[in-house]
Write a structure and sequence with these properties.
By secondary structure, the chain is α/β, with parallel strands linked by helices. Helix content is about 30%, strand content about 25%. It contains 14 helices and 22 strands. The mean pLDDT is about 95. It binds flavin-adenine dinucleotide and 1,4-dihydronicotinamide adenine dinucleotide.
């Protein structure tokens, strides 16, 4: 077992494990350290994967309960929550084991333990890392390069203590032992709406309290409004422009005090469980960053240049702990580029081609610029739109809520952005991501043959709409 490496990665999430694997592929020796007890980070253990497993299972449950009859299928449906949770746990276990397999395949040493940087690589000296192992021993390692990929943690709501039972973060909301009768979600962002959907479908009454005047801030406003209408139709209750100011535990549940964001009369919402989902914050505690002089920005993110280099030579940062969207595939893109840069290649990330998906039903997917961005930047653009009500496949699967919206440069026709609210939006966006990556025009999409009858035709028809020749409506 070597104790000196070309690169040591701190954090085994999508940023950390992918940078270590790519370094291994490029012939560098690498170790990846995670204190969690299993590799895969937030994403595999308490994020993307368990949430998507529950979203899938709860969607099937809800479909069987409410939609099968419309398709001529009579079924008696019963929820087996422990079995649903067990299936989620099995998937997580298989995928985290998969990371260990990939480490072996690419000659990466995976180490479980808490890492601290004790010296930066400098003037030909190796960087030093101390790892607190689970058995209490310490292992000292050295490396030419150190990559910080320590991810993010739940943003706290001032005055509210998360106990992960009654007052939960996303982590507790993924393991509730029973369906709450009333769930109060604080924050109408991605986590609030995804996990709110899970428990809504399983039978909870869900109220969402959001500080701003819209759901999913940052997403195209028209799409955000349509999305809120669809969720309201599904039975979600929204209290926008509202903030939570306190919570009291009672014998029967929780009394949550809310008031208008701009100030005003307080009111109380009673619920069994409250989910706090007001964002995530970079996680860089106890890493030794201040001691070795690594600079953080005002929001606590590690500052890097476009090559992921921090201000200290030989120390890099990628993923949620640096700027940019907190997404697993963004961390993965940075991981690949960072490894390639360390290996002397020209790694690069195109941030305009990083999609974002909300895995509710229907899904919401976006990439590139939205209308508000373009207006603010003074860019002249054209819009093509197509509703799923006019798409043959959407009709056959009884999923016609939503639309595709494509934005293209008014002069060059280059695709600048796309937002989709509708069935399979997360998969449909991929072709627009590719178009943006290739610098394609909306006409390129419009003149590409799409199979019939598929949902992808809605993307093509929206692209045709940019030049005003949509044919199916
Ligand atoms: P992380 O995955 O957070 O990994 C960092 C790791 O570093 C952690 O395992 C931590 O234990 C370890 N670490 C920290 N400090 C130390 C130390 N000192 N020593 C050793 N190890 C340390 N993104 C998507 O793209 N799609 C989704 O569907 C999606 N769903 C999500 C659902 C939920 C409920 C949540 C919470 C997040 C979701 N995300 C999703 C976001 C995604 O999980 C993150 O963007 C992604 O995990 C970031 O990867 P990372 O490698 O930067 O950090
Ligand atoms: P978020 O940033 O998506 O949403 C938080 C929401 O809470 C915002 O709408 C914000 O205005 C609101 N808010 C903030 N303070 C508030 C307050 N005091 N009272 C009421 N509302 C308040 O954050 P979220 O949902 O916690 O997710 C964190 C991150 O995890 C996301 O930014 C995303 O990057 C990642 N994620 C990605 C997923 C995906 O890609 N499908 C799924 C889940 C998480």
């Amino acid at each position: 077992m070597a104790d000196s490496f070309d690169a040591i990665v701190i954090g085994g999430g999508p940023g950390g494990y992918n940078v270590a694997i790519r370094l291994g592929q490029l012939g560098l020796t690498a170790a990846c350290i995670d204190k969690r007890g299993a590799f895969g980070g937030t994403c595999l253990n308490i994020g993307c994967i368990p949430s998507k497993a529950l979203l899938h299972a709860s969607e099937r449950f809800h479909e069987a309960e409410t939609d099968f009859a419309k398709l001529g299928i009579k079924a008696k449906v019963e929820l087996d929550l422990p079995a649903m949770m067990a299936q989620k746990t099995k998937v997580v276990g298989e995928l985290t084991k998969g990371v260990e397999f990939l480490f072996k395949k690419n000659k990466v040493e995976g180490i479980i333990g808490e890492a601290k940087i004790t010296a930066a690589p400098s003037n030909g000296n190796l960087g030093k890392i101390e790892v607190k192992l689970p058995d209490g021993k310490t292992r000292s390692l050295t490396a030419k390069n150190i990559i910080i990929a320590t991810g993010s943690d739940v943003a706290p709501l001032p005055g509210v203590t998360v106990d992960e039972k009654q007052i939960v973060s996303s982590t507790g909301a993924l393991t509730l032992g029973a369906v709450p009768k009333k769930l109060l979600v604080v924050g109408a962002g991605v986590i609030g709406l995804e996990l709110g959907s899970v428990w809504k479908r399983l039978g909870a009454e869900v109220t969402v309290v959001e500080f701003l005047d819209r759901v999913t801030p940052g997403i195209d406003l028209e799409v955000s409004k349509a999305f809120q209408r669809i969720l309201t139709k599904q039975g979600f209750t929204f209290q926008l422009s509202t903030k939570v100011t306190g919570v009291e535990k009672t014998k029967t549940g929780l009394k949550v005090t809310v008031e208008p964001a701009a100030g005003g009369d307080k009111s109380v919402i009673e619920c069994d469980v409250m989910l706090v989902a007001i964002g995530r914050i970079p996680y860089t505690a106890n890493l030794g960053l201040a001691e070795v002089g690594v600079a953080l920005d005002k929001r606590g993110r590690v500052i890097t240049d476009t090559h992921f280099r921090t201000n200290v030579a030989g120390i890099y940062a990628i993923g949620d702990c640096r700027e940019g969207p907190m997404l697993a595939h963004k961390a993965e893109e940075e991981a690949v580029a960072c490894a390639e840069n360390i290996a002397g290649k020209a790694g690069h990330v195109n941030y305009d081609a990083i999609p974002s998906v909300v895995y509710t039903f229907p899904e919401v997917a976006t990439v590139g610029k939205n209308e508000e961005d373009l207006k603010a930047a003074g860019v002249k653009y054209k819009i093509g739109k197509f509703p799923f009500t006019a798409n043959a496949r959407a009709k056959t699967i009884a999923a016609t809520d939503g639309f595709v919206k494509i934005l293209a440069d008014a002069e060059t026709d280059k695709v600048l952005g796309c937002a989709i609210v509708g069935p399979e939006a997360g998969n449909l966006i991929a072709e627009v991501v590719l178009a943006i990556e290739f610098g394609a025009s909306s006409e390129d999409i419009a003149r590409t043959c799409h199979s019939h009858p598929t949902l992808t035709e809605a993307v093509r028809q929206a692209a045709m709409g940019v030049e005003g020749w949509t044919m199916q409506m």
